[in-house]
Design a protein that fits this description.
With 139 residues, the chain is of the alpha+beta class. The chain has a domain of 90 residues: HIT-like (HIT family, subunit A, 2-Layer Sandwich). It is 25% helix and 19% strand. The chain has a 5-stranded antiparallel β-sheet, covered by helices on one side. The longest helix is centred in the middle third of the chain and has 16 residues. Bound molecules: adenosine monophosphate and zinc ion.
Length: 139
């Protein structure tokens, strides 16, 4: 679904929009600011439409976030967008796991989606976690 405000988005201004609609950049979004280089991050890897960097508060020896360069609020919005973007996010998450040496014996990819799941940053991100035994079920 295209947002009615796409002209505004092109100028990278803050706009009001349906929550599931992709817009290119949101001025007060932390991860948009990391994607644009305004806020520094420890970059691990990147692809055309995605970027991986280390979580500032790691919960495991390896804890990397994989985000879209453009602003999507959550996994649901990326899934609706189609266009192979979710494949690209998952592919980059796996490449990170390989590069970090956690693909064996295993790693976890988590998309916290919505407040009950603990999503605190409203820009889609996959947590790539590994380097220790990870408990199940999660808290
Ligand atoms: P979530 O709670 O699933 O929305 O995950 C947000 C994650 O972003 C948390 O694990 C935070 O530690 C992480 N985070 C917040 N600010 C930064 C930052 N400036 N650089 C890297 N990671 C961050
Ligand atoms: Zn954003």
């Amino acid at each position: 679904m295209r947002c009615r405000n796409s002209g505004e988005h092109a100028r990278k201004t803050i706009v009001r929009c349906e929550p599931d609609v992709k817009i290119s950049s949101v001025a007060d979004c932390l991860f948009c600011q990391i994607a644009s280089g305004l806020i520094p991050a420890a970059k691990v890897m990147e692809s055309n439409r995605a970027l991986a960097f280390r979580d500032i508060n790691p919960q495991a020896p390896t804890h990397v976030l994989v985000i879209t360069r453009e602003h999507y609020p959550d996994l649901a919005a990326v899934a609706r967008a189609g266009d192979g973007l979710l494949d690209e996010l998952a592919g980059l998450a796996h490449q990170v796991a390989e590069a970090e040496g956690i693909d064996e014996p295993g790693y976890r990819v988590v998309f916290n989606t919505g407040p009950q799941a603990g999503q605190t940053v409203g820009h889609v991100h996959a947590h790539v976690l590994g380097g220790r035994a990870l408990g199940w079920p999660p808290g």
